């Protein structure tokens, strides 16, 4: 009888433990759905259902096949867990099918959108933004020097900058003591993006700069250099150097840009926070930086193609900023 009690106790502990894992996993998925690709979500649900079914099988092996109501109750409990696992699995397949149908509809809508011409206002706003993108960082220009100093003071208000060429810049995540050498990929606009982020969303900027929150890797991404890479990624993603974007996300961005002059800077702030969130979610280290950037781009493209997004502030990930 003691053996049966121990096995029954192990059964209850196993079922309870697996159930709690399922509940917390589902809660985590629900709270971060907008940060995950929809098809990845259905894949996660399938994994959870398999986890539940495996747990039920393990529990079934623990049951001592003895007559009496305790054994019958345990069998009933395991059958219920299996039924629930199969229900979750069927739901995942249904979700996957619905999403695939939705993707096909969105693709057809996107192809129709790409045939439309830009409005005069969109063309004008695009030209203005392209002028910003063409400006390279020039260490000899006073305006650029002052912007770099302003970035330092926004990042470290209590620390005096010793010079535009100093080892202090490494603390912000530049590769060397002269940050001007790191602007080649993003140009002067990448400095403007960083400065906008530092002044508009100070709390989030400081959290990312100081790597606060979450379990951080031993080899973290360099903050400032990552910022320059994000600018370059957004330019490519939105196809901003072309006369007309070749993607639905790019066209939708031009609609937003026509109404909001600072749309590119706002999107940059969202992109930086999404990148850091995915970095933590993927438990990434410096060697996985490119993979995180690809995931960030995919997430932003998905959100920009949502019909409900008419402003950057309408993007689900915008709520991460503060």
From TrEMBL:
<dbReference type="InterPro" id="IPR006816">
    <property type="entry name" value="ELMO_dom"/>
</dbReference>
<keyword id="KW-0812">Transmembrane</keyword>
<feature type="transmembrane region" description="Helical">
    <location>
        <begin position="20"/>
        <end position="39"/>
    </location>
</feature>
<protein>
    <recommendedName>
        <fullName>ELMO domain-containing protein</fullName>
    </recommendedName>
</protein>
<keyword id="KW-0472">Membrane</keyword>
<keyword id="KW-1133">Transmembrane helix</keyword>
<dbReference type="InterPro" id="IPR050868">
    <property type="entry name" value="ELMO_domain-containing"/>
</dbReference>
<dbReference type="Pfam" id="PF04727">
    <property type="entry name" value="ELMO_CED12"/>
</dbReference>
<feature type="domain" description="ELMO">
    <location>
        <begin position="143"/>
        <end position="304"/>
    </location>
</feature>
